[in-house]
Amino acid sequence: MKATVFGSGACIPGEKMPEQILAGWLRAAALFHSYYHQLVGQASQQVHQADLLGDTPLAHASRQPLLTLVMAMQAELATLLQDMDQLALLTQSPTPRGYQKLAAHT
């Protein structure tokens, strides 16, 4: 049975424990970061090949979705870093709302 325990000691049946939420969020953030670096590597390789072979309109168009995804992931990583800055506060004085925010991200 899952239960959430907050500062008051209250348990909410069916909810995850704060430690589970935090661990899941950290795993998801690390995996997202790994995927981001894989995509950056692929995008860099494509740009390098275009520099060597000459950039054609078709090559540029095929590369554009990947670059758009990389930029979107970079923006999301910036948001995750801001959330990580708030983790210290959350672990010092846990609140249901703080853990709900982490749970929503994962």
Structural write-up:
With 106 residues, the protein is mainly α. The protein contains three helices and two strands; from the N terminus they run ββααα. It has helices spanning 18-53, 57-92, 96-105; strands spanning 3-5, 11-13. Strands 1-2 form a two-stranded antiparallel ribbon. A hairpin with a 5-residue loop joins strand 1 and strand 2. Helix 1 (18-53) packs antiparallel against helix 2 (57-92) and helix 1 runs parallel beside helix 3. It is rod-shaped. 8% of the residues are buried. The model is unreliable at 1-9 (pLDDT under 50).
Mean pLDDT: 76
The shape is: rod-shaped
How many angstroms separate the termini?
A: 20 Å
Number of separate strands? 2
Task: State the major sheet.
Answer: 2 strands, antiparallel
Strand residues, percent: 5-15%
**What's the order of the H and E elements?**
EEHHH
Low-confidence stretches: 1-9
Reconstruct the topology from this structure:
Elements: E1 3-5, E2 11-13, H1 18-53, H2 57-92, H3 96-105
Antiparallel strand pairs: 1-2
Helix pairs in contact: 1-2, 1-3
